[in-house]
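Person: Show me a sequence?

Helper:
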Amino acid sequence: MKPLFRLLLLGVLLMLCRQGLAMSCIGPNGELGTVADISSTVAIPPTLPVGSVIWRSEQYSLDVKCWQDAPAHMEWVYLYLNISDPNQSQLGGQIEIGLNYKGQDYLCSAPGMQSGSYCKMALDVFFQGCTQTQGCADKSRIIHADFNFFIAKKKDGKPGQEGPLPNLPPIYPAVQFNGENGVNNLPGGRNFTVALTGLSKLRYVGCSSTIDVSPRTIDFGHIGSFSAKKGATIQDRPILITAVKACNSAYGLEGSFMPVSGSLTDANKTLVPVNNKSVGIQLFNTDDGKSIEFKKEFPLAPLGNRDRYVEKNIMVRLLWNADTAVLGDFNASAKLEIYYK
């Protein structure tokens, strides 16, 4: 009888694995998704390098409730891209969707992102398995995820090309929470989705701009530790951003400082070095003294601008992030992303 019992048990386990294709994820109030809208025009120079980010969503910090809603084995939770369009064919081959997770940008062509016909990124959450035919909603978990998604240039346009990108869908399912084994195909399956609208606002413009930041590195030199007081200014240093346009096409420019090293505090207003948390770095618009948040777009040139040369003055402020100084070197860095409008 024992060999027969083992054989039957093995058959049950195989059956559970085959059925393990369903996970439900809903928002805190039962919602099934949200909409991200491209609210302003997005310009794409044909000469912009392939892979360049041309639009980025807001930063999402979501709590969703997930559970295995069918018999399944152990399963990780994933963020999927392009659920109904795995090959991104609806985007016409000129652009593609990417995901920013833990501060790193990933395209579907990146190593580790492709799994079968799907593009997905694993979150740090998994379920132990479900043996109940009606699913295991009683074992649901709240999952937190911080991410944004973006549109990147996938293919070169023609020199001098201008005008809208053709045949883009009015709504595009960009990101979805789902299980390890693929898209939930159960009747009534519920999976939180971020849908993208406004793709019709994408258009080609005739040329790009050459962007320069001067200086590219700021050395604050030696700083006396005796004056440490949280929030107090240590030094202000100016930087100049210039944009030189190669043609007379009308488009605007916006920038966004994205951290490369360091951590953000104060609602993304302060960049704190990893190796010295007693100081922080903030950015200000020299014209009006207003703070410039990291990870948030700010204007460089207005919409419809035809000027071939524009400049933007920014003040970089080093300030105390604690009442007691930590002795030693410190460094933090950010990259400037440019968006054509």
Remarks:
- The mean pLDDT is 87.
- The chain is about 5% helix and 45% strand.
- Helices lie at 2-19.
